[in-house]
Amino acid sequence: MKPKILFGTNNQNKLQEIRQILDEKYEVLSLKDLGKQMDVEETETTLEGNAILKATTYYHHTGIPCFADDTGLEVEALNGAPGVYSARYAGENCSYDDNVNKMLREMIGKENRKAQFRTVIAFYDGSQTLTFDGIVNGQIIQERRGTNGFGYDPIFLPEGYQETFAELSSEVKNSISHRGKAVRKFAEFILQA
Question: Which residues pair with 22 in a beta bridge?
């Protein structure tokens, strides 16, 4: 029987990605699987802070070792924005499309299109808090391409590829993505525990 671990998220897209990566080793539970309807307000000013806040809060509500993530798109020409505010870049209750539209508007006329996706995963098991990060470099293209993925995927072209994250298969994306890198570091750790 696989050990249970809780992924502290309500985002079904992220959950699906994580399950594909950790499936062979762990039974990854979601809040929904536990019948929990809760959200932790991301009040911290860093990706690390938000990830730790979520992991510890969900652990205290469930008693199950928990990991949670926070991800940001950091664009060089925008001084690292939207960063920790990536999910609500276009305002509270905005959609993925709203965020992409705002990013495309902000990048009009910008020569430097370098960007990176960064994910921080925090793990809390009741006694220790650990963080793992993953970064993928790339650039913001000028128009949407592809229908896979979510968020900024249609406008992010990873370094060394001709396809956006939204054009790549989920297998390829998981093998090179920021979240995939962070999850592999995390998985390496929990396999040794």
Answer: none
Query: What's the domain range around 151?
Result: 4-192
Q: Which of 18-32, 91-105, 120-134 has the lowest mean pLDDT?
A: 18-32
Q: Which of 23, 69, 70, 153 is catalytic?
A: 70
70 is catalytic: yes
C-beta neighbour count of 24 within 10 angstroms: 8
In sequence order, what are the residues at sequence separation of 6 or more whose Cβ sits closer than 8 angstroms to the Cβ of residue 179?
A: 14, 17, 18, 69, 71, 119, 134
Structure tokens of 127?
A: 């006694």
CB atoms within 10 A of CB 99: 22
Classify burial at 132, counting beta carbons within 10 Å of its beta carbon; exposed 0-12, middle 13-18, buried 19 or more: buried
pLDDT number for residue 170: 86
Please indicate, yes or no, whether the overall pTM of this predicted structure exceeds 0.90.
no
Count of structural domains within the chain: 1
Q: How many CB atoms are located within 10 Å of the residue 137 CB?
A: 15
- The domain that contains 116 carries what CATH number? 3.90.950.10
Where residue 39 falls among pLDDT bands split at 50, 70, 90? confident
CA 75 remoteness from chain centre:
16
